[in-house]
């Protein structure tokens, strides 16, 4: 009988030990999740602050904003890259409509140029333009018009890169791995 009670006591002690370890693991997971939540809240608040300061918007997990000053194409691109972004790539009608809404009645720079090879239009990410929304007379092949603009009509045109316009920046939110083993967009 004493042997049975001793075995039963050992089982209860073992169970308590296991439950204590499980509780500690849950407490640690709770602390980790609380820290991740706080970090996400901080990042969200920073994004909203940037969004309000830069007259921008979030669309499909990306941040879009217009420069407040008119600059040449190169200066506009530098403005974007200094903020972790680049001039926008408009490769579908949805992005074109987004930029039209953002820019109102202003023509804006986008990330398209044929500076490297006349007549070969490439985006700032190195991809080649496959289709566009060119005005009927564009691109017209003028050698000094090597940068593309989007007009309020939603049509594209080539323009002298030294012209001064506002630029539209696109900042892709990149996935970052976190302690939970998966990834999240930041």
Account of the 3D structure:
Strands 1, 2, 3, 4, 5, 6, 7 and 8 form an 8-stranded mixed β-sheet that branches. The chain has a two-stranded antiparallel ribbon with strand order 9-10. It is built from 3 helices and 10 strands, in the order αββαβαβββββββ. The longest helix is centred in the first third of the chain and has 53 residues, at 2-54. It is rod-shaped and about 100 Å long. It folds into 2 domains: 2-53; 57-172, Mannose-Binding Protein A, Chain A (Roll). It is an alpha+beta fold and 186 residues long. It has helices at residues 2-54, 73-81, 93-103; strands at 56-59, 62-66, 86-87, 108-113, 122-123, 147-150, 156-159, 166-172, 175-177, 183-185.
Order of helices and strands: HEEHEHEEEEEEE
CATH class category label of the largest domain: Alpha Beta
CATH architecture of the largest domain: Roll
- Any idea of the CATH topology of the largest domain? Mannose-Binding Protein A, Chain A
Distance between the termini: 62 Å
Low-confidence stretches: 175-186
The assigned structural class equals alpha+beta
Q: How large is the radius of gyration?
A: 27 Å
DSSP strand content: 15-25%
Number of helices, counting only DSSP H or I runs of 4 residues or more:
3
Which percent bin holds the helix content? 25-40%
**What's the structural domain tally?**
2
Mean pLDDT: 84
Main β sheet profile: 8 strands, mixed
Query: What is the approximate shape?
Result: rod-shaped
CATH homologous superfamily caption of the largest domain: Mannose-Binding Protein A, subunit A
